[in-house]
Write a structure and sequence with these properties.
disordered N terminus, 13 helices, 261 residues, globular, 79% helix, single chain
């Protein structure tokens, strides 16, 4: 009996250590999300979205690009079909990342755990979890996703609250901050890879065409503009600048050592 109690205490201690280790690894992600979500909160208020709806969107989505695109589509009154297709195109990568991450989950991760973890499996969370040696358990992953989720939700709330305290000039400046984040993401790889630069340039040109050519602007809605630009630019990049198979293959094997719960 005493041995059983000792084993239970050791197991609980190990679970706490994994949970806190995940929270420690997720804290920098959460702090980064705080600033981005702050900009999203301001952008939502500038578009006339009530603060509680903006916070609810962040709490139920956790996707910066998807939320911003969805915000614009909501404002212009697009159809539900356009919204669904746009979100599928923008967020398809999360499905691929979840499939990949599922190969690193240990036997303690149940179906309900997979559903909860996949809800907050963002680019950064995926990168940190995939970089862990061996398999990862549910306690570490719960700790890893908690700071990003809180940072994203809290940042949106702070942005909505700050929008009522800041001047119109500062609000206008902060309203484009989230676009600056996306520019900061795509410019470095575009400078290093000509193929990325061509795809980026093609998407920009297509977007300008839909904006300034009268026929396209009048007959193509905002939702389908996002879909057409993203899919067309990606397709052209795949055809004219494909990644060689040998360059796409990974050479790093993941150790099989299991992390205990």
């Amino acid at each position: 009996m005493q041995q059983m109690q000792t084993n239970i205490r050791m197991q609980n201690s190990t679970r706490r250590e994994l949970l806190f280790r995940g929270m420690r690894d997720g804290l920098p992600i959460g702090l980064g999300y705080l600033s981005v979500a702050f900009a999203f909160g301001i952008a939502a208020v500038l578009r006339g979205v009530p603060a509680w709806i903006a916070v609810l969107i962040s709490m139920t989505n956790v996707t910066s690009a998807g939320q911003l695109a969805g915000l614009d589509l909501m404002v212009v009154g697009c159809t539900m079909g356009e919204m669904i297709l746009t979100q599928c195109v923008i967020n398809m990568r999360y499905a691929l990342m979840s499939v990949s991450l599922s190969q690193k989950l240990d036997k303690t991760v149940r179906l309900i755990d997979r559903l909860i973890i996949s809800f907050c499996n963002t680019d950064e969370v995926f990168a940190v979890a995939s970089g862990q040696p061996g398999l990862v358990g549910r306690y570490y992953l719960y700790g890893l996703i908690l700071p990003p989720y809180l940072g994203w939700s809290l940042g949106t709330l702070l942005g909505c609250v700050a929008s009522g305290l800041l001047s119109a000039r500062v609000m206008a400046a902060l309203g484009i901050a989230i676009y600056g984040m996306f520019i900061a993401i795509v410019i470095p790889p575009a400078r290093k890879d000509r193929a990325v630069a061509c795809v980026l340039g093609g998407a920009v040109l297509l977007s300008c065409a839909f904006q300034y050519l009268p026929f396209l602007k009048q007959h193509v809605s905002s939702g389908f503009v996002i879909i057409l630009c993203a899919v067309t630019a990606a397709a052209l990049g795949a055809v004219f600048a494909p990644i060689p198979v040998e360059a796409a293959e990974t050479t790093a094997d993941i150790p099989s050592k299991e992390v205990q719960p």
